[in-house]
Amino acid sequence: MLRTFAIGLGVLVALLLAAPSAASAYVPGEVSAGTITGRPAAGAVLTVEFDRAFRAGEPVTLVVSCPGLTDVEIDDVADSGGSTSTPVTVPDGATGTCAVSAFGVSSGAAAVASFTVVDADVPASVGNGDGLAVTGGSTLAAIWFGVGAVVSGAVLFTVARLRRSTAV
């Protein structure tokens, strides 16, 4: 009985640790993912960074695409590590999800990042400071859930063991 319980617990732990997470999402092909910092409201200036996506000193063309608006092209040059950090102004009238695509002129390397435009009238103090609601679970809640599961298992094991010993 104890051996079966230990095997079951081991399988459960292995399944929990093997599950993929959203934070480790796969980006297909040779396209690198970039990061965007700043509050994405219409007219705001964001910083778009692509880390080691291009050749050192390579000219890079960034294209900002927002639904229903004309694409905006921005020229930049990768630093000695092949990275870029480019200020990008969110177009006036932008709504929904906008994409920033970057293309290395000589290498043909591609990188992409996206952002969702927020209402400029919503204060940044809502949610986590960028105007977006905080989503996801709490680490502390997950720990307490795990502790509760172990304690419940121990109680059930003890009850089963006591029932078995009193039945004999």
UniProtKB/TrEMBL annotation:
Keywords: Membrane, Signal, Transmembrane, Transmembrane helix. The chain crosses the membrane at residues 142-162. Residues 1-25 form the signal peptide. This is Sortase. It comes from Labedella populi.
